[in-house]
Amino acid sequence: MASLRGASPKLRNYFRDNYIPQICEALLCGLLVTCPEDPLRYLEKMIITIIQSGLENLLWDMCIDPSLKPKIRRLSETYLEQLFGLDDQLVTPELMIKACTFYTGHLIKSHFGGWREVAIPRINQEAIMAEKMNKAIAHCKFKCQKLVFNHWLSYVESHKERLLASLFRLRQIFSIQRQKVILAKWKENARRKCKRREENLILNHELQLRNWKSKATDEKSLGPEQSYSEAVVTKPVEFDISALPQEAITQIFSYLTFRDTIRCGKVNHSWMAMTQSGFLWNAIDFSTVKNIEDKFVVTTLQKWRLNVLRLNFRGCFFRTKTLKAVSHCKNLQELNVSDCQSLTDESMRHISEGCPGVLYLNLSNTTITNRTMRLLPRYFPNLQNLNLAYCRKFTDKGLQYLNLGNGCHKLIYLDLSGCTQISVQGFRNIANSCTGIMHLTINDMPTLTDNCVKVLVEKCLQISTVVFIGSPHISDCAFKALTSCNLKKIRFEGNKRITDACFKYIDKNYPGINHIYMVDCKTLTDSSLKSLSVLKQLTVLNLTNCIRISDAGLRQFLDGSVSVKIRELNLNNCSLVGDPAIVKLSERCTNLHYLSLRNCEHLTDLAIECIANMQSLISIDLSGTSISHEGLALLSRHRKLREVSLSECTNITDMGIRAFCRSSMNLEHLDVSHCSQLSDDIIKAVAIFCTQITSLNIAGCPKITDGGLETLSAKCHYLHILDISGCILLTDQILQDLRVGCKQLRILKMQFCKSISVAAAHKMSSVVQHQEYSSRNPPRWFGYDSDGNRLAETHHRMQLRKKTELLVKDTFSSDEESSDSNLK
């Protein structure tokens, strides 16, 4: 091979061009690996195969059987070329021999062991196979056992689970059955106790009624000049109130009115000493006393001048000299002289000079002029609350005086209702003088415009409460101007220029607003409710007479975050509101306390059932709805209602009222006026079950008789307000019963009671604080004539609806006045 290195180039090119080294390499590898029995025939066969495949596809392992091909790298094509001396590299024969020897030894080492195992049969193959078979059999048995065990384990576990489920189901069935038995027994016991309680209540009622009748009979026999209480004071006194601690005595007497305190002081010397505590004379209310003498007022003020802090002369007609006596009260802080027609500028001069510490001053409906306005900043530097409602004799210049001297810069509450003489300049003067105003009330002022509000809020940026009632020219512009203030409470009423636009960005302009009263604003639609739904602090919403409000808008309102804190919702006369909105209301409003749905005619007993599930409710108004006695039975499930109004609900019956009263032991206010189908049975139900009632309205119920009111007088001793207008069967007897039984009665309305005489009504007026009486026949809108016969339904409903709307507005106004008084 080495001799070819010195061969001619022609010979060397011949070897290279005809793939002689590659052919020899393939044949040699085949011989080494295959080791055929006949090498010549093997070479002949392989040469034919190479010829058929072509020299271009020649591989070194082409002649090796595929099953015997070794897993080694391919031999480099240059190795045999080097052996034959066809390469151009200068490799010495020694290096080539060494490389070939290493390569051959590596091949023998790699493949000889495998060839030996294939070519030479094993001697102990049977023993090895037997051992392998035993291992395979053992492994198969183990796998079978494992499979069987897994099936058995899964069966046991599933069976155990079924047993546990069956056991749990049996326990559940047993528990349910036991609960059913217990519940049935509890229901039976509760029903028995309820029946026993009702029987005891009825029995006690009959006993109390019998005792009360005997007491009333005895009082009649004593004559008008001697009361029953005077006749029974024959027993010795078992308890002396003077033995109580002084703090307890003072607390007890603090609940008495001025007139009652004076009367108690005339009992004896001990009681006179108890009424001399200075704390009891911190507040004196002369407005509740009728026909009081000027001399007594002057004496009282002079005696307690150092203790008096609050004085109320509302509606009193005293001489100027009497009012001057107020100047002796140097520590006076609150003064109410509203509706005092005898009050003059001269009287106010004396009062202001002697009482520099006044914080609250009510001058509403008086004849004061600019002279009094000039005194306010000079003598009342700490004045915080000023009421000038319906004072029409001062001018814009009088308001300018508020900036004189120290000024009224501490004023936080101002009421200018009915002061139509004030112009834009007057409001500008207020803004310059009283920049700290927080609560502004301007009612009954048709001359109020947007410009007045704009000039006011330019400097009064702390306004948090605005009340504009009877101001039809206020529009969205005024609402927009108020965005510079931090409003908490707004109230508009009877305004047709307020639209949905004012609420469009209310969450950004008034994020802290919590009271919204938009009464009789008929241009508001569901869009306003959608805008209000994002207010997180809103607690009171009144949309009375907003007739465009519907279920869709109310549901959008309740879907927002406002439903979490809302506690008072008034939807009176929103006739488009129906059951879907009330169902949503019961689901979302968990803190709602007061709900008014007067004249929402589309409500059915389904809505009443949802209302009964609202356990947070304490007051509900369903007047003018189609609620039936079945609905009242559903409403009786609530058990926590304190105020219920069912006026004009013509579908309710005595049975429904009785079922409701049976479970409403805490009821304090009940209004069933203009339910002409009701009779004395409801009075008996109220007297038996609702003894804590303080207000009862049965106006327009012509079937009520003296017997029903007698029962009421015998049991309901906490009654404060009673309206029996239109009860044509009542006579003078009920007034005597009320005087004996209802000692705490304060307001009595007896309009259109033809059977009650003028003399009896006049006598009753001295007992109550407020009384309304007329002996005329009931008007047509009551729905019946003077004999109790029903009139035409259409005329009755139309007239009653108008009257109801007026009552709603009056009630709303009174509620607002009470809240304002609490604020003051």
TrEMBL record:
The keyword Repeat applies. SUPFAM superfamilies: F-box domain (SSF81383), RNI-like (SSF52047). This is F-box and leucine-rich repeat protein 13. PROSITE patterns: FBOX. InterPro entries: F-box-like_dom_sf, F-box_dom, FBXL15_LRR, Leu-rich_rpt_Cys-con_subtyp, LRR_dom_sf. Keywords: Cell projection, Cilium, Cytoplasm, Cytoskeleton, Flagellum, Leucine-rich repeat, Repeat, Ubl conjugation pathway. It comes from Cricetulus griseus (Chinese hamster). Signal peptide: none annotated. Belongs to the DRC6 family. Residues 238-284 form the F-box domain. Substrate-recognition component of the SCF (SKP1-CUL1-F-box protein)-type E3 ubiquitin ligase complex. Component of the nexin-dynein regulatory complex (N-DRC), a key regulator of ciliary/flagellar motility which maintains the alignment and integrity of the distal axoneme and regulates microtubule sliding in motile axonemes. Specifically targets CEP192 isoform 3 for ubiquitin-mediated proteolysis and thereby acts as a regulator of microtubule nucleation activity. Component of the nexin-dynein regulatory complex (N-DRC). Directly interacts with SKP1 and CUL1. Interacts with TCTE1/DRC5.
